[in-house]
Amino acid sequence: MRPTRPTAGETGHPARAAAAAALVAAAVDSGGLPGAVLATGWGAEGEPLVHAFGRTAVTGPAVPVTADTVYDLASLTKVTATLPAVLRLADTGALGLDDPVRRHLPGFTGAGKDAVTVRQLLTHTSGLPPHRPLHERPGRPAGRLAAALAEPLVTAPGTAVAYSDLGFVALGEVVRAVAGAPLDRAVRELVLDPLGLADTRYRPPAGWRGRTAATEPRPDGSVPVGTVHDENAASLGGVCGHAGLFGTAGDLARYLQRGWLAADSPILSPKVRAEALRCHTEGLGGRRGLGWTLRGDRWDHLARYWPSDGAGHTGFTGTSVALAPSGGPWAVLLTNGVHLGRDASVVVALRRAVCEALTDPDPGPRTPTGARPA
């Protein structure tokens, strides 16, 4: 399968980028994914190389995927919306990373929670559990949000890494309280508009649906297009700190290059970027930066040759980003693998295989799992 649109060029290693794109094409051609967009590059300079494959759905309305296809970014919301918004507010002095969360959120109540800091929410060391089915609670979104903020700790703050959606729900509320604006507006003003990310937003408009990839079919057989897949985010109104953002591969490429890799990032100072990308959790059962997953963490999807200062994140719908602050490769892989169900084995293998292809000192053909063909 060939790309659906020619690209403007590439910096870095064309053979490695071509090998990575071939892996994505093979995963789509085999039926493991409905479609996908891969954007790759090296460092802050140069145009991304963007390849698009497949269709936006296998059931219901479906069109060919292009570089402009919009995907439900799922947990990439954490590092493309909530994290940079918090860091911008920290850069300006509006909040401190070591502020108690309760200073900004009086509703963040419960035993031991007065000791939880903004930094601990960002590093997933707050002691909050990973998940609670808020969407199963009756009532209105405000009541579900209050329940999320009052969720009891399961470990003492600062003692263990436990990836927590609830922690990022709270961080979204911190942004809202400190910025004095709804989270979607705060993210737009603090992050999206300064970077020129016009194709990234919460609650995408109806006009985007024709180019938006479908997610998991509902029990009634309907196929969601442009409404958030994450049940908790949907039950909270679609605008949350942990999920809810939609966007394109081109916008995420610009976010990585201009927001994190460029010396003159318009949103984040070099100091706060360095702080976000260093490990804060040695000896706590994981390797986490501020928001980011680092090399050696249990959720690290980077490959063996990826630079040691690499960072990344994944999303449940089938999305991922990876970067190397030292100026090495970066990658954006957007898929709607969840459209075919919640068995993520294909996309999990593909993420790592793509990163392997981009950094292997001996580039060449591979299977979709990253192995050399026999």
From TrEMBL:
<dbReference type="Pfam" id="PF00144">
    <property type="entry name" value="Beta-lactamase"/>
</dbReference>
<dbReference type="InterPro" id="IPR050789">
    <property type="entry name" value="Diverse_Enzym_Activities"/>
</dbReference>
<dbReference type="InterPro" id="IPR012338">
    <property type="entry name" value="Beta-lactam/transpept-like"/>
</dbReference>
<dbReference type="InterPro" id="IPR001466">
    <property type="entry name" value="Beta-lactam-related"/>
</dbReference>
<feature type="domain" description="Beta-lactamase-related">
    <location>
        <begin position="21"/>
        <end position="346"/>
    </location>
</feature>
<protein>
    <submittedName>
        <fullName>Esterase</fullName>
    </submittedName>
</protein>
<dbReference type="GO" id="GO:0016787">
    <property type="term" value="F:hydrolase activity"/>
</dbReference>
<keyword id="KW-0378">Hydrolase</keyword>
